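Q: Convert this sequence to structure tokens.
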Amino acid sequence: MTHESIINDYPELIHVSYFIDDSFLEHYNKNKSLTANLCYYARDIIEGRWPEAEPYIIKDACWAYTYARDVIEQRWPEAELYIMKDEFWAYTYARDVIKQRWPEAEPYIMKDPECVYKYARDIIEGRWPEAEPYIMKDSCWAYYYTKYVIKEYGSKNYEYIMKDTEHESIINDYPELIEAIDFIDDPFLEFYFENESVTKNQSLAANLYYYTIHIKRRWLEAEPIIMKDARSAYFYALGVIKGRWFEAEHYIMKDAEWAYRYAHDIIKQRWFEAEPVIMKDAIYAYFYASNIIKGRWAEAEPIIMKDACWAYYYAINIIKGRWFEAEPIIMNSDHALVYKKHVIL
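A:
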């Protein structure tokens, strides 16, 4: 690799081309940033400081921290102005390099709830009152702060603070949990927050059900909420109760898909009470006829025939022949040719 090829292919190296040499070029990793390459080269090849590269490394908080930790192996005062402006790397620099509180950086660190929790836990080793107005705005990190910082390092008012912080943050950030606020406990909250990338996008009923799978038992207090969500109620009956859940059937039968699945997987026979709902959905009416009735379902046919796709499958797999009443719909669709080929001819 020559300097000319660098200019053509790696324009980010133009500014440092005056001091890099062939050895650096041999070790250059195009999949990493310029500052990462400079830092790694100083650490792994030079095995010491590289003054010419420092003006570039210093401006990247991540690699300035790494350079201070692994190359300088002590504080790098010239870089601290840059590092302290990034909440995470300021916390990490304080933890791994300074190894004590870094007052100048605290106004930046305290603005990030996750960093507040970790800074209080790992460096202050106790409550950080000035940062609490920031952390209490995030229910996840407020929960961990109250559980592992306030409790771990002692507080006569822990139980009050824990309840107040948890409930206030939940009400602010997770309104879907309010309905269950009277019976959810620490293990559920820990499960909820540790899996937040999934739980935040699910309904309350779904999360209560997921937790029962985690604890491997029924959760009676949660059942009135779970049963109101047809999907969660179906899975709860299937995976937790492992049988019919009569109290929930009134809710399940209102959803064609989950009523069909409940009939197929749990009742394992016709579910007459749910049929008026199932038959209104062509897809699940077809599956119900095919897999449960195992034959024609006359009452549902007026609905099925309105959907060309499922009318075609109904004709070929259930009627096993022409379905004259549905042919005007089928023959005016993308399924006309296959219907003609496999059914009419």
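Residues 153-164 have pLDDT under 50 and may be disordered.
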